[in-house]
Specification:
The two termini are 59 Å apart. The protein has 287 residues and is of the alpha+beta class. It has helices at residues 2-6, 11-27, 30-35, 49-62, 68-80, 92-95, 272-282, and strands at residues 97-98, 103-105, 114-116, 121-123, 129-134, 143-154, 159-165, 168-176, 181-185, 199-200, 209-215, 219-224, 227-233, 252-256, 258-269. The chain is globular. It has 2 domains: 2-80, no CATH class; 92-282, Sandwich (Jelly Rolls), CATH 2.60.120.560. The strands form 2 sheets. Strands 1, 3, 4, 6, 11, 12, 13 and 15 form an 8-stranded antiparallel β-sheet that branches. The protein has a 7-stranded antiparallel β-sheet with strand order 2-5-14-7-8-9-10, with no helix packed on it. It has 7 helices and 15 strands. Helix 2 (11-27) packs antiparallel against helix 5.
């Protein structure tokens, strides 16, 4: 009967309102609840027996009494668990999966020492390359990968993040070609120093940089410290890696004549909303 009166669509609001009222009632002191009794009921006597009797009777009927603190906690937990307008969207941190326990040392030849710990991976000075790769299942489409990296010693790229783009792979280069080149290798056969993603910036030694790469049906996007750093549409283009980076497939990080460190490597799958938006962009005719 209640559902017919309030409407199914307003059920959540009815639940929330009811629980708020109950929490307020349960949280009131004994005297406050007793004072809300009907005026026709004796509020007190010379010895206060009527007042105590009234509250005892009311609390027993409602199931409060000594269990009031526990009931209050249960009601609060129930209210916090009710659905809301963003219930279909996962918590951002919960959507990310930390990548650990499946990292192995790449074998470039001339590699520097590599130390792999739970929270920090250190890659020593190589001649010329040192790196790591992931040896487990990974998405190839519709995902983001993120990490933090810093250069400890040296002057060339301290992070070449290699990742899948469908059945191919690319590398996002930070600090290449003498220390300042940023870009994606390779696009249509051109590496990060000579394609449309090429840019230049200065990287400070011992400073951590947050690096993120995203692959969807429409494009490849890369960020440094949450600011766009490289972007490449996929339609009409071919992607591959330089042959030296084969040791980082399917997912890996390498440094060129540098000592560098990486940490907090994680990955997430894109939401259906993000996937559909990218597919819509990819379906648009090329100008």
């Amino acid at each position: 009967m209640i559902l017919k009166l309030i409407g199914q669509s307003n059920l959540f609001h009815f639940q929330a309102f009811t629980l708020v009222i109950l929490i307020g009632l349960v949280g009131q002191p004994v005297e406050s609840i007793a004072d809300t009794a009907s005026p026709s009921t004796p509020a007190t006597t010379s010895n206060g027996d009527a007042k105590k009797s009234l509250f005892k009777s009311s609390s027993n009927r409602l199931g409060f009494g000594k269990s009031r603190p526990k009931l209050l906690q249960r009601l609060r937990e129930r209210l916090s668990g009710l659905p809301n307008g963003n219930a279909s969207q996962p918590n951002e941190d919960e959507a990310w999966k930390t990548l650990k326990d499946k990292w192995v040392v790449s074998q470039f030849g001339g590699d520097g020492p590599v130390v792999i710990k739970d929270k920090l991976i250190t890659m020593g000075f190589g001649d010329p390359l040192t790196g790591i790769r992931w040896e487990a299942e990974l998405p190839k489409e519709n995902y983001e990968v993120e990490l933090e990296a810093r250069r400890r010693e040296g002057f060339d790229f301290f992070c070449a993040l290699t990742f899948p783009v469908g059945d191919k792979h690319v590398s996002f280069i930070l600090g290449g070609w003498g220390g300042g080149v940023v870009g994606i290798s390779s696009v249509d056969g051109f590496d990060a120093s000579e394609n449309e993603t090429t840019s230049f910036r200065n990287f400070e030694t011992d400073r951590w940089y947050k690096i993120r790469a995203r692959v969807d049906a429409n494009q490849i996007q890369c960020w440094i410290d949450n600011k766009p750093a490289a972007e490449q549409t996929r339609k009409g283009h071919e992607f591959d890696i330089r042959y030296e980076m084969d040791q980082c497939v399917p997912l890996g990080v390498a440094a060129f004549q540098c000592k560098s460190e990486v940490r907090n490597i994680r990955i997430r799958k894109l939401t259906m909303t993000e996937i559909k938006a990218a597919e819509k962009e990819a379906a648009k005719p090329t100008e």
